[in-house]
Amino acid sequence: MGNLIDDVAALMREVAAREIMPRFRLLKEGEIEEKSKGDFVTIADREAELWLTPRLEALVSGSRVLGEEAVAGEPARMGLIESDDPVWTVDPVDGTSNFIAGRETFGVMIALIRRGIAEQAWIYLPVPGELAIAERGAGAWWTSKGQTERLSAGHAPRELPDVAGAFNTRFMPEAWRERIEKFSAVVGRKANDFCSAVDYTAVARGRKDLVTYHRMMPWDHVPGSLIVREAGGVVRDMANGVDYAPRTLAGPHLVARDEEGWRRFADAIRGL
């Protein structure tokens, strides 16, 4: 996939070693803030994004970084998503609440968008040291313990008692939230990790069968959506049947391991 894939992966490993893991389970008083109710940020988020931003921009001429923490400080920066210039999306610590709580389910997520289309994506899970990468049209790959294998999401079980799903409904309009909550009650296993980095890679690996989302911030969803698609999965709006795109900011979206499973789950949810 070329040097860019390797260069970004190396930056992710380095930023995790420098700025994130030294603070895991060691956050001090004053190193955690609440940006808005229930939306937290730590010194690790901020320092990791500051470290990554100039290094990513140096890799691709004319590129800009659309980072979660930069947008929190300067909301107008969100306009970069509309640019046809190369744009990096960066979530320096996805799953910040898990990170704060000392849970291992958090990750670093990066994607490169050109002309509104996701071209490459990376998700790094620092605790196990696992990495997912994807390039549009070239597949998705998973590296763990020094071994790399091509990702294939496979097929979702046909029977709902055999299905494992993650159901994110916090930002859902009431009617969709009610449908999804009813549907979640009949699947076999709720597997909510409250971390897009974990959820998307779990679908791409066939470990989860579906995930639901509504708020679609680019740094949360561009990387995982490309990885899932290149592994054979589907990320699509249940209301209008349109595939997710980086400039789409709201759902309700359903992530599934395969086309047939997506249609079956979406039909079941819409019918409730």
- Element-level helix/strand string: HEEHEHEHEEEEEEHEHEHEEH
| Fraction of helical residues | 25-40%
Count of alpha/pi helices: 8
Second CATH tier, the architecture of the largest domain: 2-Layer Sandwich
Please give the oligomerization state of what you see: single chain
How many separate structural domains? 2
- Share of β-strand residues: 25-35%
Compute the separation of the termini in Å: 43 Å
Morphology: globular
Structural class: alpha+beta
Query: What do we call the CATH homologous superfamily of the largest domain?
Result: Fructose-1,6-Bisphosphatase, subunit A, domain 1
- Mean pLDDT score, rounded? 96
Poorly predicted tracts of residues: none
Strand arrangement, major sheet: 3-4-5-6-7-8-9
By DSSP, the count of extended strands is: 14
Largest sheet, in brief, is: 7 strands, mixed
Using the CA coordinates, give the radius of gyration: 18 Å
At the fold tier of CATH, the topology name of the largest domain is Fructose-1,6-Bisphosphatase, Chain A, domain 1
Q: What is the top-level CATH class of the largest domain?
A: Alpha Beta
Q: What are the key terms here?
A:
272 residues, alpha+beta, Fructose-1,6-Bisphosphatase, Chain A, domain 1, D-Maltodextrin-Binding Protein, domain 2, 2 domains, seven-stranded mixed beta sheet, 34% helix, 28% strand
